[in-house]
Amino acid sequence: MDLRKIQETEERYYANTFSRLPVAITRGEGMYVYDVEDRRYLDMFAGIAVDSLGHSHPEVVSTIRKQSGLLMHTSNWYYTLPQLRLAQLLVKLTGLEKAFITNDGTEAVETAIKLARKATGKKEIIAMKNAFHGRTLGALSLTWGEKYRKPFMPLLPGIKFAEYNDVDALREKITGETAAVIVEPIQGEAGVIIPDDGYLEEVREITVEKNILLILDEVQTGFGRTGEMFAFQHSGIKPDIICLAKGMGGGFPIGATVFDCGDFKPGEHGGTFIGNPLACEVANTVINVIVRERLAENASRMGDYLLNELKKRGMGARGRGLMVGVEVEDGKRTVLDLIEKGVLTIYSGNTLRILPPLIIERKHVDEFLTAFDSLKH
Ligand SMILES: Cc1ncc(COP(=O)(O)O)c(C=O)c1O
């Protein structure tokens, strides 16, 4: 099927939820993906910070083959070992107490909302302006932006928004009914917005002082992306709840909420596919490869190199590790022009977002820069 036919078929049969870019991808290998005409593209966005080990990583493929041959699903009526191994790994890596596995990032946020309400008995949650936490009604209530929210009102009561990177604004919103504050260590969907040094530490101090929970949404920043295993580790603080997903499964749908604020009782939370053994075993493999191959360090090195090269070119660029945003005149136009040059990226407004697989090497960064330089800025 050619691209035009694919577009017509989608228009007829699929919900009108996605503004797609004009490429239909059929396969991938390492840092590259291929379209229906077998044209090759350098993947500089990793399926929105998801394909942390690139495409078709041999250990991931082998785990999927092995685990799907052993056991793919059995529900949570019974114990399964991959789920248990994953919970132990997440607790060890984060330093928190317990883990709950989810199917994606939005569910990780939903879990955090329920935990915060249950632990504190309070309903108010303070989120940040321009935040993105997902699109189900609970997570949507914490997401900023009329375009996401307006058609679906009313959302959860008791949600307030404070200016990001402004601790005084946060202080003003706190009341005796505040259960938690939820923050992205770097705002991703808003266009790679990095707070000042010391911001997270101050948010932690305020939340401790006021006896409210700190939820960090590391769905996009987690698992090596910013140069540490988790972005909060740049600051030395310890949150009460962490939401995870994206890079955790290397492309297999999975997320988690790791927490240190009490626990649920049986029946209070769950789901049929939650902690599915295949998804969990893939995540175990992906996380172990990230640790063993020191991919967070690679993210730091390659991210610094990319950022410096962009700055040398006089671009307004910012980032931490492999989470980089570049100010361009027209975000969509730049992404479309890069597609023509055989490079895939994404955009938020007029910020070009670069989120490549953590396995990226210098030669791939150079390949991206060559394509970028050849555009008319
Ligand atoms: C910070 C953050 N939280 C939550 C989500 C929602 O995650 P998912 O799309 O896996 O449900 C996203 C997705 O972009 C995100 O960036």
How would you describe this structure to a colleague?
This protein is of the alpha/beta class. The chain has a domain at 59-292: Aspartate Aminotransferase, domain 2 (3-Layer(aba) Sandwich). Helices cover 38% and strands 17% of the residues. It has 13 helices and 15 strands. The protein has helices at residues 3-13, 46-49, 58-70, 81-94, 105-120, 137-142, 146-149, 167-173, 199-209, 277-292, 295-312, 331-340, 362-373, and strands at residues 25-29, 32-35, 40-43, 98-102, 124-128, 159-162, 178-183, 213-217, 241-244, 255-259, 317-320, 323-327, 343-344, 346-348, 351-354. The protein has a seven-stranded mixed sheet with strand order 4-10-9-8-7-5-6, sandwiched between helices. A four-stranded mixed sheet has the order 1-2-3-13. Strands 11-12-15-14 form a four-stranded antiparallel sheet, covered by helices on one side. β7 (178-183), α9 (199-209) and β8 (213-217) form a beta-alpha-beta unit. α3 (58-70) runs antiparallel to α10 and α4 (81-94) packs parallel to α10. The chain is globular, with a radius of gyration of 21 Å. The structure holds pyridoxal-5'-phosphate. Pyridoxal-5'-phosphate (PLP) is lined by residues 48, 104-106, 109, 132-134, 184, 188-189, 217, 219-220, 245.
